[in-house]
Design brief:
Elements: H1 7-16, H2 40-55, E1 59-68, H3 88-98, E2 106-116, E3 122-133, E4 149-151, H4 163-169, H5 171-183, E5 195-197
Parallel strand pairs: 3-5
Antiparallel strand pairs: 1-2, 2-3, 3-4
Helix pairs in contact: 4-5
């Protein structure tokens, strides 16, 4: 099960895991618990463990965010509801307003992917992507803060890349690659030992 209602994340996860023989079922109408954790790990585990318990199937969840150096690491785990803005465009505008006149544009994306089993075991995979923030959005292919973010060593924003290009270097792509390294020979098995990959 994919424990997310975010269409952009679903697309990235399905693309990343296309090479393994897994059946990835969408969440459907199952509501997710509110993200009340103080870390990405806590939020992802809440979602994955809830869905695994409710469905009796292994469940995969991601929690991710952007950490802006000049803002002391904000918005972090609150990236999806930064400034209580309603959508990605409004959150991007709000972030740019907070950074107006700020020379330091360094930031990083962080993703934690949790694979939870009905018996309570969890596997944790983490990925990070450093980069800089532009003064205005570029590109139409991404979601979230992708139009503002240029990864280190790149000249394009994540929103100017294809899904495959983004996955090859993104924070979520890194975390999913670590998951694949563990599960490349088969599907998740109930009762498997906990795994952490940083």
């Amino acid at each position: 099960m994919l424990a997310t209602g975010n269409a952009g994340k679903v697309r990235e996860i399905e693309e990343a895991l296309a090479g393994v023989n897994w059946t990835l079922s969408p969440l459907g109408g199952l509501p997710l618990p509110p993200e009340t954790g103080r870390t990405y790990e806590e939020n992802a585990a809440m979602k994955a463990c809830f869905v695994a318990h409710m469905t009796g199937q292994p469940a995969l969840a991601d929690d991710s965010g952007i950490e802006v150096e000049a803002l002391g690491g904000e918005p972090g785990v609150y990236s999806a509801r930064f400034g209580n803005r309603e959508n990605d465009t409004e959150r991007n505008v709000y972030l740019l307003e907070k950074l107006r006149g700020q020379a330091n544009r360094r930031a990083k994306f962080v993703s934690v992917v949790i694979l939870a089993y009905p018996d309570g075991h969890v596997e944790t995979y983490r990925g990070e992507l450093p980069g800089t923030l532009l003064e205005g959005p570029r590109g139409d292919n991404g979601f979230g803060y992708d139009p503002l973010f240029v990864p280190v060593g790149q000249t394009r924003t994540l929103a100017e890349m294809t899904v495959a290009e983004k996955r090859a270097l993104s924070h979520r792509g890194q975390a999913l690659k670590k998951l694949l390294e563990v599960h490349q020979h088969g599907s998740p098995v109930r009762g498997a030992p906990p795994v952490t990959r940083d």
